[in-house]
């Protein structure tokens, strides 16, 4: 029996003998923050706010550990008593915060305090789906925003969807909707926005809610940045520039060719110098660096066939 008691007691003793940390050893108490609140300050923006525990001794360095639990897990520390997060809120938001004391390389944490925001109200299957947005950059650094979506599977035919975007502190409702066969809004165009095309990392928040006589329409939020949604558009722009440059150069070539045909007399006065027909790139160089006479001779040699070839050469060199 004595041996058995020993077997049970020895591990207990060792556990208790392990020195906790300095602060625990000193019997220092750390108390959780108080009055932790969550406030929605803008679309998809939540302010976390708390107060230091009034009974907490202020002798030690206090920081706060924050953990966002939903919708996206995130942990961070702050010495402030507030912080702001930009996250989608349609499925609710849950976070916890605790006090942490640090002293002489040891630290001790309080209990967590937890708060949550409920999911935005609405019937299942009524939210829009397949929400997709593109930012188009126009001239003078203005940006337009186009979005499209599908009506929720269980959205009644009388559903009216409303789309909002938020960019920094600007929030705007869609002025111009596209409709499906039941006249439900399923697309939106903002021809002018506050979006700065140069700030490609700034988040664009999209919020789509709605109303219906027969169902509560559940809102949906989505975060984009121009980096991810503008990609297609930027490639298009490069494509357009290439096409424009090529067309312009072909047009100039055509004009020169016409001008030279009009001055045909001139080339008769100065007979054409034989040109190697198999090296078109050389010809392109000749055109840019040498005299009009040589271009004229080239055109005379190849006739109308030359213009197409010439454009091909130019396209090769542009791309
Ligand atoms: C916490 O909130 C309660 C009630 O709103 C208030 O009476 C109290 O003073 C607050 N505590 C602190 C530390 O601000
Ligand atoms: C806080 O620190 C001061 C001096 O640094 C000390 O006199 C006081 O007892 C400390 N208070 C507590 C609650 O530890
Ligand atoms: C700080 O910690 C070291 C070792 O952990 C200890 O020797 C020292 O006495 C501590 N200082 C104070 C002021 O508690
Ligand atoms: C947005 O915030 C900026 C400063 O950050 C301020 O100058 C501007 O007036 C605000 N705009 C709106 C619409 O609140
Ligand atoms: C939709 O959201 C906007 C912006 O939050 C709000 O002002 C509006 O009342 C909402 N409409 C409905 C029908 O929920």
Summary, kept brief:
This protein has 319 residues and is of the alpha+beta class.
Q: Give the N-to-C terminal Cα separation.
A: 91 Å
Shape: elongated
How many domains in all? 3
Helix and strand element order: HHEEEEEEEEEEEEEEEEHHHHHH
> Which stretches are low in confidence, meaning pLDDT under 50 for 5 or more residues running?
10-19, 230-235, 280-319
Q: What is the count of helical runs?
A: 8
Q: At the fourth CATH level, what is the homologous superfamily of the largest domain?
A: Immunoglobulins
List keywords for this structure.
alpha+beta; Immunoglobulin-like; 3 domains; 5-stranded antiparallel sheet; 4-stranded antiparallel sheet; elongated; binds 2-acetamido-2-deoxy-beta-D-glucopyranose; FN3_sf; transmembrane; transmembrane helix
């Amino acid at each position: 029996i004595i041996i058995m008691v020993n077997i049970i007691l020895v591990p207990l003793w060792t556990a208790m003998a392990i020195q906790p940390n300095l602060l625990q050893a000193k019997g220092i108490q750390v108390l959780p923050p108080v009055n932790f609140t969550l406030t929605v300050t803008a679309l998809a923006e939540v302010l976390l706010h708390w107060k230091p525990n009034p009974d907490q001794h202020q002798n030690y360095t206090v920081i706060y550990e924050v953990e966002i639990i939903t919708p996206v897990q995130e942990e961070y520390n702050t010495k402030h008593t507030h912080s702001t997060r930009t996250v989608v809120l349609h499925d609710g938001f849950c976070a916890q915060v605790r006090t942490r004391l640090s002293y002489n390389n040891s630290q001790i944490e309080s209990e967590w305090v937890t708060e949550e925001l409920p999911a935005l109200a609405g019937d299942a299957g009524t939210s829009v789906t397949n929400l997709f947005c593109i930012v188009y950059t126009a001239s003078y650094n203005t940006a337009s925003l186009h979005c499209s979506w599908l009506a929720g599977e269980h959205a009644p035919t009388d559903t009216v969807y409303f789309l909002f975007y938020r960019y920094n502190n600007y929030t705007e409702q869609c002025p111009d909707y596209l409709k499906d066969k039941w006249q439900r809004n399923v697309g939106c165009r903002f021809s002018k926005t506050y979006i700065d095309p140069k700030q490609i990392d700034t988040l664009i928040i999209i919020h789509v809610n709605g109303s219906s006589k027969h169902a509560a329409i559940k809102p949906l939020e989505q975060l984009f940045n121009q980096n991810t949604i503008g990609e297609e558009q930027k490639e298009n722009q490069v494509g357009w520039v290439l096409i424009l440059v090529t067309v312009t150069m072909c047009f100039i070539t055509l004009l020169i060719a016409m001008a030279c045909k009009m001055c045909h007399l001139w080339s008769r006065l100065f007979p054409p110098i034989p040109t190697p027909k198999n090296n078109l790139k050389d010809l392109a160089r000749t055109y840019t660096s040498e005299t009009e006479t040589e271009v004229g001779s080239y055109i005379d040699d190849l006739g109308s066939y030359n213009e197409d070839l010439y454009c091909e050469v130019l396209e090769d060199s542009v791309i």
